């Protein structure tokens, strides 16, 4: 289950802007995108993942993604970061 991968991640970034930055910097290894998030926010991130060859995994709920990230609010996107 995708949410388990998020919970077990040592290092992750939450939110569209931070996720986009991590992808551009080449430090995101896997990206999670909530299907109920605004497509205007998520589509550019999905396209960027395709460009950079990063796996973009879809999850059904912003609320569940936020919870898996350990925050009280929903998250449109999150990314697991490379171990440094």
Description of the molecule:
44% of the residues lie in helices and 24% in strands. It contains 4 helices and 4 strands, in the order H-E-H-E-H-E-H-E. The protein has a 4-stranded mixed beta sheet, sandwiched between helices. Helix 2 (16-24) runs parallel beside helix 3 (39-52).
Total helix count? 4
Low-confidence stretches: none
> What is the CA-atom radius of gyration, in angstroms?
11 Å
Proportion of helical residues: 40-55%
Query: Whole-Å distance between the termini?
Result: 25 Å
How much strand content do the residues show? 15-25%
Largest sheet: 4 strands, mixed
How many runs of DSSP E, i.e. beta strands?
Answer: 4
Mean of pLDDT: 94
Tell me the series of helices and strands, N- to C-terminal: HEHEHEHE
General form:
globular
Strand order, main sheet: write it out: 1-4-2-3
State the secondary-structure class. Answer: alpha+beta
């Amino acid at each position: 289950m995708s949410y388990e991968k998020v919970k077990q991640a040592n290092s992750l970034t939450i939110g569209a802007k931070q996720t986009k930055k991590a992808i551009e910097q080449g430090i995101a290894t896997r990206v999670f995108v909530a299907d109920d998030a605004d497509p205007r926010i998520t589509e550019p991130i999905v396209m960027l993942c395709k460009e950079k060859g990063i796996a973009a995994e879809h999850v059904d709920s912003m609320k569940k993604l936020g919870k898996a990230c350990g925050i009280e609010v929903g998250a449109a996107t999150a990314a697991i970061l490379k171990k440094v």
